Amino acid sequence: MKFRPCIDLHQGVVKQIVGGTLKDGDDAPTTNFAATHPASWFAERYRNDGLTGGHIIQLGAGNEEAACEALAAWPDGMQLGGGITCENAKTWLDRGASSIIVTSHVFHDGRIDEERLSRLVKTVGKERLVLDLSCRRSDEGYRIVTDRWQKWTDEVITLPLLDRLADSCHEFLIHGVDVEGMVSGIEEPLVELLGQWGKLPLTYAGGIRAISDIDKIDTLGKGAIDFTVGSALDIFGGTSLAYDEITRRFHG
Protein backbone atom coordinates (compact mmCIF):
# COMPACT_ATOMS: atom_id res chain seq x y z
CA MET A 1 0.00 0.00 0.00
CA LYS A 2 1.09 3.58 -0.47
CA PHE A 3 0.08 7.11 0.41
CA ARG A 4 -1.74 9.00 -2.35
CA PRO A 5 -1.70 12.77 -1.74
CA CYS A 6 -4.70 14.96 -2.51
CA ILE A 7 -5.64 18.53 -3.38
CA ASP A 8 -9.35 19.24 -2.82
CA LEU A 9 -10.42 22.53 -4.38
CA HIS A 10 -13.49 24.54 -3.38
CA GLN A 11 -14.01 28.02 -4.80
CA GLY A 12 -10.39 28.04 -5.94
CA VAL A 13 -8.96 27.31 -2.48
CA VAL A 14 -7.40 24.11 -1.15
CA LYS A 15 -9.80 22.95 1.56
CA GLN A 16 -10.77 19.98 3.68
CA ILE A 17 -14.55 19.70 3.82
CA VAL A 18 -16.95 17.41 5.64
CA GLY A 19 -18.19 15.49 2.61
CA GLY A 20 -21.85 15.18 3.51
CA THR A 21 -22.24 18.97 3.91
CA LEU A 22 -21.24 19.88 0.34
CA LYS A 23 -24.39 21.09 -1.41
CA ASP A 24 -25.55 23.33 -4.23
CA GLY A 25 -26.80 26.80 -3.38
CA ASP A 26 -25.66 29.42 -0.92
CA ASP A 27 -25.19 27.21 2.13
CA ALA A 28 -21.48 26.93 2.89
CA PRO A 29 -20.18 23.42 3.61
CA THR A 30 -18.61 22.58 6.93
CA THR A 31 -14.93 23.33 6.37
CA ASN A 32 -12.16 21.86 8.53
CA PHE A 33 -9.35 23.68 6.77
CA ALA A 34 -8.77 26.40 4.17
CA ALA A 35 -5.21 26.84 2.95
CA THR A 36 -3.32 30.08 2.65
CA HIS A 37 -0.96 28.41 0.18
CA PRO A 38 -2.16 28.03 -3.43
CA ALA A 39 -2.87 24.63 -4.98
CA SER A 40 0.42 24.80 -6.86
CA TRP A 41 2.33 24.87 -3.54
CA PHE A 42 0.90 21.49 -2.57
CA ALA A 43 1.51 20.00 -6.03
CA GLU A 44 5.11 21.19 -5.96
CA ARG A 45 5.64 19.67 -2.51
CA TYR A 46 4.25 16.33 -3.65
CA ARG A 47 6.49 16.49 -6.69
CA ASN A 48 9.58 17.21 -4.59
CA ASP A 49 8.70 14.29 -2.32
CA GLY A 50 8.13 11.93 -5.25
CA LEU A 51 4.53 11.10 -4.31
CA THR A 52 2.87 9.66 -7.40
CA GLY A 53 -0.73 8.75 -8.10
CA GLY A 54 -2.31 11.58 -6.12
CA HIS A 55 -5.40 13.46 -7.20
CA ILE A 56 -6.84 16.94 -7.58
CA ILE A 57 -10.62 17.15 -7.11
CA GLN A 58 -12.63 20.20 -8.15
CA LEU A 59 -15.57 20.49 -5.76
CA GLY A 60 -17.94 22.58 -7.84
CA ALA A 61 -17.32 25.60 -10.03
CA GLY A 62 -14.61 28.23 -9.72
CA ASN A 63 -11.65 25.87 -9.46
CA GLU A 64 -10.34 25.67 -13.00
CA GLU A 65 -7.56 28.24 -12.62
CA ALA A 66 -6.26 26.70 -9.40
CA ALA A 67 -6.41 23.22 -10.93
CA CYS A 68 -4.44 24.37 -13.97
CA GLU A 69 -1.78 25.95 -11.75
CA ALA A 70 -1.42 22.75 -9.74
CA LEU A 71 -1.09 20.66 -12.90
CA ALA A 72 1.49 23.09 -14.27
CA ALA A 73 3.50 22.66 -11.07
CA TRP A 74 3.69 18.92 -11.72
CA PRO A 75 2.85 17.97 -15.31
CA ASP A 76 1.67 14.34 -15.56
CA GLY A 77 2.14 13.98 -11.81
CA MET A 78 -1.46 14.04 -10.54
CA GLN A 79 -4.89 12.86 -11.58
CA LEU A 80 -7.72 15.37 -12.05
CA GLY A 81 -11.41 14.98 -11.25
CA GLY A 82 -14.51 17.10 -10.90
CA GLY A 83 -16.75 18.12 -13.77
CA ILE A 84 -15.07 15.77 -16.26
CA THR A 85 -17.07 14.94 -19.39
CA CYS A 86 -16.40 13.32 -22.75
CA GLU A 87 -16.07 16.81 -24.17
CA ASN A 88 -13.40 18.18 -21.81
CA ALA A 89 -11.50 15.04 -20.76
CA LYS A 90 -8.81 15.38 -23.43
CA THR A 91 -8.37 19.07 -22.55
CA TRP A 92 -7.48 18.21 -18.96
CA LEU A 93 -4.95 15.64 -20.09
CA ASP A 94 -3.41 18.27 -22.36
CA ARG A 95 -3.23 20.60 -19.34
CA GLY A 96 -1.05 18.10 -17.51
CA ALA A 97 -3.31 15.60 -15.74
CA SER A 98 -1.81 12.10 -15.65
CA SER A 99 -5.34 10.63 -15.72
CA ILE A 100 -8.87 11.93 -15.47
CA ILE A 101 -11.24 10.89 -12.68
CA VAL A 102 -14.94 10.51 -13.44
CA THR A 103 -18.09 9.86 -11.42
CA SER A 104 -21.16 11.90 -12.31
CA HIS A 105 -20.71 11.81 -16.08
CA VAL A 106 -20.66 8.01 -16.10
CA PHE A 107 -23.14 7.34 -13.30
CA HIS A 108 -25.82 9.37 -15.04
CA ASP A 109 -29.50 9.42 -14.03
CA GLY A 110 -28.81 6.90 -11.30
CA ARG A 111 -27.20 4.19 -13.41
CA ILE A 112 -24.06 3.45 -15.41
CA ASP A 113 -24.30 5.20 -18.76
CA GLU A 114 -22.60 2.63 -20.98
CA GLU A 115 -22.51 4.95 -23.99
CA ARG A 116 -20.75 7.73 -22.09
CA LEU A 117 -18.31 5.29 -20.52
CA SER A 118 -17.49 3.83 -23.92
CA ARG A 119 -16.94 7.31 -25.39
CA LEU A 120 -14.60 8.23 -22.53
CA VAL A 121 -12.54 5.09 -23.07
CA LYS A 122 -12.30 5.85 -26.79
CA THR A 123 -11.37 9.48 -26.08
CA VAL A 124 -8.63 9.03 -23.46
CA GLY A 125 -7.99 5.29 -23.28
CA LYS A 126 -8.68 3.08 -20.26
CA GLU A 127 -5.08 3.52 -19.11
CA ARG A 128 -5.81 7.20 -18.38
CA LEU A 129 -9.26 6.79 -16.87
CA VAL A 130 -9.96 6.48 -13.13
CA LEU A 131 -13.49 5.75 -11.97
CA ASP A 132 -14.51 7.38 -8.71
CA LEU A 133 -16.94 5.12 -6.85
CA SER A 134 -17.58 7.45 -3.92
CA CYS A 135 -20.38 5.98 -1.85
CA ARG A 136 -22.65 6.24 1.17
CA ARG A 137 -24.14 3.64 3.48
CA SER A 138 -27.63 2.36 2.63
CA ASP A 139 -29.80 -0.64 3.47
CA GLU A 140 -28.54 -2.30 0.27
CA GLY A 141 -24.88 -1.66 0.98
CA TYR A 142 -22.57 1.13 -0.17
CA ARG A 143 -24.42 3.03 -2.89
CA ILE A 144 -22.50 5.24 -5.30
CA VAL A 145 -23.30 8.96 -5.07
CA THR A 146 -22.70 11.71 -7.64
CA ASP A 147 -22.85 15.50 -8.13
CA ARG A 148 -20.63 16.47 -5.21
CA TRP A 149 -21.99 13.45 -3.32
CA GLN A 150 -25.54 14.85 -3.23
CA LYS A 151 -27.35 12.41 -5.53
CA TRP A 152 -27.84 8.74 -4.84
CA THR A 153 -27.53 6.27 -7.70
CA ASP A 154 -29.02 2.79 -8.01
CA GLU A 155 -25.54 1.26 -8.18
CA VAL A 156 -24.19 -0.55 -5.12
CA ILE A 157 -20.51 -1.41 -4.81
CA THR A 158 -20.17 -5.17 -5.18
CA LEU A 159 -17.44 -7.45 -6.48
CA PRO A 160 -19.44 -8.08 -9.72
CA LEU A 161 -19.74 -4.32 -10.24
CA LEU A 162 -15.99 -3.89 -9.90
CA ASP A 163 -15.50 -6.74 -12.37
CA ARG A 164 -17.94 -5.08 -14.77
CA LEU A 165 -16.13 -1.73 -14.70
CA ALA A 166 -12.57 -3.06 -14.65
CA ASP A 167 -12.34 -3.32 -18.44
CA SER A 168 -13.00 0.42 -18.78
CA CYS A 169 -10.44 1.96 -16.39
CA HIS A 170 -7.02 1.42 -14.86
CA GLU A 171 -7.93 2.08 -11.23
CA PHE A 172 -10.66 3.09 -8.78
CA LEU A 173 -10.85 5.95 -6.28
CA ILE A 174 -13.38 5.39 -3.50
CA HIS A 175 -14.43 7.95 -0.90
CA GLY A 176 -16.43 6.81 2.11
CA VAL A 177 -18.59 9.92 2.03
CA ASP A 178 -20.32 9.43 5.39
CA VAL A 179 -16.97 9.73 7.18
CA GLU A 180 -15.22 12.06 4.71
CA GLY A 181 -13.74 14.94 6.69
CA MET A 182 -15.03 13.58 10.01
CA VAL A 183 -11.67 12.22 11.30
CA SER A 184 -13.77 9.56 13.02
CA GLY A 185 -12.37 6.31 11.67
CA ILE A 186 -12.63 4.48 8.37
CA GLU A 187 -15.54 2.61 6.80
CA GLU A 188 -14.27 -0.82 7.81
CA PRO A 189 -16.95 -2.92 6.02
CA LEU A 190 -16.28 -1.02 2.78
CA VAL A 191 -12.52 -1.51 3.03
CA GLU A 192 -13.00 -5.18 3.86
CA LEU A 193 -15.21 -5.59 0.78
CA LEU A 194 -12.65 -3.87 -1.44
CA GLY A 195 -9.92 -6.06 0.02
CA GLN A 196 -11.66 -9.13 -1.38
CA TRP A 197 -11.16 -7.92 -4.96
CA GLY A 198 -7.63 -6.70 -5.73
CA LYS A 199 -7.64 -6.90 -9.53
CA LEU A 200 -6.84 -3.20 -10.19
CA PRO A 201 -5.29 -0.46 -8.05
CA LEU A 202 -7.73 0.91 -5.45
CA THR A 203 -7.41 4.09 -3.39
CA TYR A 204 -9.57 4.58 -0.30
CA ALA A 205 -10.34 7.95 1.29
CA GLY A 206 -12.47 8.89 4.27
CA GLY A 207 -12.26 9.13 8.05
CA ILE A 208 -8.58 8.33 8.59
CA ARG A 209 -7.57 9.78 11.95
CA ALA A 210 -4.47 7.86 13.08
CA ILE A 211 -1.82 5.34 12.06
CA SER A 212 -4.09 2.62 13.46
CA ASP A 213 -6.65 3.39 10.75
CA ILE A 214 -3.98 3.07 8.07
CA ASP A 215 -2.94 -0.25 9.59
CA LYS A 216 -6.57 -1.42 9.39
CA ILE A 217 -6.67 -0.53 5.69
CA ASP A 218 -3.49 -2.52 5.19
CA THR A 219 -4.91 -5.54 7.03
CA LEU A 220 -8.45 -5.48 5.66
CA GLY A 221 -7.22 -4.60 2.18
CA LYS A 222 -4.55 -7.32 2.25
CA GLY A 223 -1.91 -4.75 1.37
CA ALA A 224 -3.54 -3.97 -1.97
CA ILE A 225 -5.43 -0.76 -1.13
CA ASP A 226 -3.73 2.65 -1.21
CA PHE A 227 -5.01 5.51 0.94
CA THR A 228 -5.54 9.25 1.02
CA VAL A 229 -5.43 11.33 4.23
CA GLY A 230 -7.15 14.70 4.50
CA SER A 231 -8.26 16.51 7.63
CA ALA A 232 -6.09 14.53 10.06
CA LEU A 233 -2.88 15.53 8.24
CA ASP A 234 -0.83 18.39 9.64
CA ILE A 235 -0.42 20.13 6.27
CA PHE A 236 -4.22 20.42 6.26
CA GLY A 237 -4.46 21.69 9.82
CA GLY A 238 -4.71 18.27 11.46
CA THR A 239 -2.99 17.27 14.68
CA SER A 240 -2.89 13.46 14.62
CA LEU A 241 -0.86 12.60 11.51
CA ALA A 242 2.37 14.15 10.27
CA TYR A 243 2.81 14.52 6.52
CA ASP A 244 6.56 13.87 6.72
CA GLU A 245 6.07 10.63 8.67
CA ILE A 246 3.33 9.36 6.36
CA THR A 247 5.44 10.19 3.33
CA ARG A 248 8.47 8.41 4.78
CA ARG A 249 6.58 5.26 5.83
CA PHE A 250 4.21 4.88 2.90
CA HIS A 251 6.08 6.36 -0.05
CA GLY A 252 5.47 3.21 -2.13
Features:
alpha/beta; TIM Barrel; three-stranded antiparallel β-sheet; 252 residues; single chain
In short:
The chain is α/β, with parallel strands linked by helices. The chain has helices at residues 39-48, 64-73, 89-94, 114-124, 159-165, 188-195, 211-220, 243-249; strands at residues 6-10, 13-17, 31-34, 54-58, 78-81, 100-102, 107-108, 111-112, 129-132, 135-138, 141-146, 151-156, 171-175, 202-205, 225-228.
Plain-language structure description:
With 252 residues, the chain is α/β, with parallel strands linked by helices. It has helices at residues 39-48, 64-73, 89-94, 114-124, 159-165, 188-195, 211-220, 243-249, and strands at 6-10, 13-17, 31-34, 54-58, 78-81, 100-102, 107-108, 111-112, 129-132, 135-138, 141-146, 151-156, 171-175, 202-205, 225-228. It has a single domain (6-249), classed as Alpha-Beta Barrel (TIM Barrel), CATH 3.20.20.70. It contains 8 helices and 15 strands. The radius of gyration is 16 Å and the shape is globular. The termini are close together.
